[in-house]
Amino acid sequence: MYDLASKCSVLLAKDFVHNAFTVILNEETRNSRSLYVEMNQTVISIYPRLKTSKMYNLSFMEENCQVLDKSLENSTMNSRQGTNKIEISDQKGVSVSCDFQYDLCTVTLAGWHHGISAGLFGTNDNEAGNEWMVPNGSFTDNVQEFTQSWQVNKCSLVPKKEKPCPITAKQNICKVFFEEPHSLLR
Questions:
Q1: Is 14:118 a contact under the CB 8 Å cutoff?
Q2: What is the pLDDT of residue 46?
Q3: CB-CB neighbours of 59 under 10 Å
Q4: Where are the domains of the chain?
Q5: Any alpha helices (H) in the chain, and if so which ranges?
Q6: Interior/surface letters 65-94, b for 16+ CB within 10 angstroms, e for the rest
Q7: Considering only CA atoms, which of 2, 1, 6, 41 is closest in space to residue 153?
Q8: What are phi and psi of 168, to 5 degrees?
Q9: Could you read off the pLDDT of 145-182 as tens digits, one per residue?
């Protein structure tokens, strides 16, 4: 157990063999966090502090980003949302559950995923000696190095002082699509 010192989005767990699932902890505005869960071409963004979630299917997205609200009836993923809890699972043994009341999320993997995942949650192979593996396959015992190695966006703990460029209309649209905390395309 360790404190996550990073203020950046980090990869918690990913299936690097079959690409069956990805779980990312995203930093949002005002020290809020969201959980990005991808499995079976479906993405769920969970916002524990807001007690909400958003779901969309990647296979329905077109190049012009116009189609986002298609039905998920044919999805091979199950989701249940109660008053204070959301659970997401698939037929391959991946399950993500968030309890909004306690701000607690769990990721459970079936034996089929033994030893094929990596991230801040470790290697999932019951070997204590390789839990602190970084993406290049080497190991570290430094929490900050371990955390920074699994960052998924270009982010640093020290803000850079750069002269801002003028924002064009197209850049503004891209910013709304890809950088706003509640954008489906983030």
A1: yes
A2: 84
A3: 11
A4: 10-150
A5: 143-149, 169-178
A6: eeeeeeeeeebebebebeeeebbbbbebeb
A7: 6
A8: -85, 170
A9: 888 899 987 665 444 444 455 667 777 777 777 777 77
What's the pTM value of the predicted model, to 2 decimals? Answer: 0.69
**CB 72, CB 13: distance < 8 Å:** no
Residue 97 tokens read as 């559950």
Rounded to an integer, what distance in angstroms lies between the CA atom of residue 45 and that of residue 1?
24
C-alpha–C-alpha distance, residues 138 and 135, integer Å: 7
Residue linked to tokens 């360790």: 2
Instruction: Give the integer Cα–Cα distance in Å for 59 and 74.
Output: 11
Is the CB of residue 84 less than 8 Å from the CB of residue 100?
Answer: yes
DSSP-derived letter for residue 125 is S
